[in-house]
C-alpha cells in the first residue's frame, strides 16, 4: 500500500508541515502523501481510530491534542513520556502506533554546535518550554536556568527535571552575563501579541546565542533587540524544520534537507531574512 502521512490539529489550515513534508517526499523520490486533517475537539478518539483503521503510516500531532492523544496510542517513547506530550506518531512493522516527541530535540538541533557545559537560560515555563527543557536534560545539558514571570511554575519545572534552577525574570536580567544560550519560549513577539520584551538584554554576554521559538514574524522584537548586541540570533523556523525532519526520518529512514527547507519557508513566510 502507498504510504501516507498526516498532521492532526485544530486549527490546522495554517500549518506549514504539509508543504514541508510534500517537498521532502518529492526530493527523496518517496511515493507518499502528507495531508492536513482538522479534528473537532471532542472527536480525537474517533479520528485516531480512523487513522489506524485506514493504515496511516504516521502522523504529526499539533495543538490542542499533544497531551490528549497519549492514552490512545499503543506505546509512548521516553522522548514523549517525561514531557507528557506527543507530536509524532510512528506505525511500527507490527502495526503498533508509537508516540514520540521531536519538538525539543528539533529545537536543540536548530542551535547547531553547542556544548554540555554551556550555561542555558530559558525564558518561560509553559508547554513549549517543558518540551525543550526535558530534551536538554535528556541530552545531558544540566546547566539549565528557567526564568518565568510566575516563579512557581519555573520551580515546578525544575523539580520535575531534577536539575537546574528557577529564577524570576528580574534575576535572569541581572545575571544575564552568566548565560551562553538564551532561549525565549513565551508567545511574546508573535504577530498578534504586544511587541514587548520578556527581559532586557543590556547585561548580555559577548558571543551569546539568542534563540526565539517564534517564527512568525521571523525576527521577533526580542531577536531585534539581541541583534543590537551583535550576538548570534536564531528564530523558531529551525525548530519547526528540525522537528519535522526528525519525524520524517523516523517514518522514512532518511534525513531530509533542513537548510534548504529553512530557506524555502523564509521565502514562503516572506522576507529575505538571514538567520545567523
Ligand atoms: P506554550 O504552551 O505555548 O508554552 P503556555 O503554556 O501558555 O504556552 O505558556 C506561556 C508562557 O509564556 C508562560 O511561561 C507564561 O508565563 P506565566 O507562567 O507567568 O503565565 C509566559 N508569558 C506569557 N505572556 C507573558 C508576558 N506578557 N510576559 C512574560 N511572560 C509571559
Give the strand order of the largest sheet, numbering strands 1, 2, ... along the chain: 2-1-3-5-6-4
Low-confidence stretches: none
Measured by DSSP, the beta-strand proportion falls in 15-25%
Count of separate DSSP helical elements: 10
* Gyration radius from CA atoms, angstroms: 19 Å
Mean pLDDT: 95
Compressed to H and E, one letter per element, the order equals EHEHEEHEEHEHEHEHEEHEHH
- Give a short account of the largest sheet: 6 strands, mixed
Whole-Å distance between the termini? Answer: 42 Å
Helix content: 25-40%
- The global form is globular
Number of beta-strand segments: 12
**Ions and ligands:** 2'-monophosphoadenosine-5'-diphosphate
Class computed from helices, strands and strand pairing: alpha/beta
Report what the structure shows.
The chain has 276 residues and is α/β, with parallel strands linked by helices. The protein is built from ten helices and twelve strands. A six-stranded mixed sheet has the order 2-1-3-5-6-4. A six-stranded parallel sheet has the order 9-8-7-10-11-12, with helices on both faces. Strand 11 (209-212), helix 8 (221-227) and strand 12 form a beta-alpha-beta unit. It is globular and about 60 Å long. The mean pLDDT is 95. It binds 2'-monophosphoadenosine-5'-diphosphate. 2'-monophosphoadenosine-5'-diphosphate binds next to helix 5.
Amino acid at each position: 500500500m502507498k504510504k501516507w502521512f498526516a498532521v492532526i490539529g485544530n486549527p490546522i489550515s495554517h500549518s506549514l508541515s504539509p508543504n514541508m513534508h510534500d517537498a521532502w517526499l518529492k526530493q527523496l523520490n518517496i511515493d507518499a502523501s502528507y495531508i492536513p486533517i482538522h479534528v473537532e475537539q471532542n472527536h480525537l478518539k474517533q479520528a485516531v481510530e480512523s487513522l489506524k483503521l485506514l493504515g496511516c503510516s504516521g502522523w504529526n500531532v499539533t495543538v490542542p491534542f499533544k497531551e490528549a492523544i497519549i492514552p490512545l496510542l499503543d506505546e509512548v517513547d521516553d522522548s514523549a513520556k517525561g514531557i507528557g506530550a506527543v507530536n509524532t506518531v510512528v506505525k511500527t512493522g507490527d502495526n503498533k502506533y508509537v508516540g514520540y516527541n521531536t519538538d525539543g530535540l528539533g529545537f536543540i538541533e536548530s542551535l547547531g554546535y553547542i556544548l554540555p557545559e554551556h550555561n542555558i537560560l530559558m525564558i518561560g515555563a509553559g508547554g513549549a518550554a517543558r518540551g525543550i527543557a526535558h530534551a536538554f536534560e535528556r541530552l545531558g545539558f544540566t546547566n539549565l536556568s528557567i526564568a518565568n514571570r510566575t516563579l512557581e511554575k519555573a520551580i515546578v519545572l525544575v523539580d520535575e527535571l531534577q536539575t537546574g534552577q528557577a529564577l524570576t525574570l528580574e534575576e535572569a536580567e541581572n545575571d544575564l552575563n552568566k548565560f551562553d544560550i538564551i532561549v525565549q519560549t513565551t508567545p511574546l513577539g508573535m504577530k498578534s501579541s504586544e511587541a514587548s520584551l520578556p527581559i532586557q538584554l543590556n547585561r548580555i554576554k559577548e558571543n551569546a546565542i539568542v534563540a526565539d521559538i517564534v517564527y512568525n514574524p521571523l525576527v521577533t522584537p526580542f531577536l531585534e533587540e539581541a541583534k543590537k548586541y551583535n550576538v548570534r540570533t536564531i528564530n523558531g523556523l529551525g525548530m519547526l524544520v528540525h522537528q519535522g525532519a526528525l519525524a520524517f526520518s523516523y517514518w522514512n529512514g532518511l534525513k531530509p534537507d533542513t537548510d534548504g527547507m529553512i530557506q524555502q519557508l523564509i521565502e514562503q513566510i516572506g522576507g529575505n531574512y538571514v538567520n545567523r
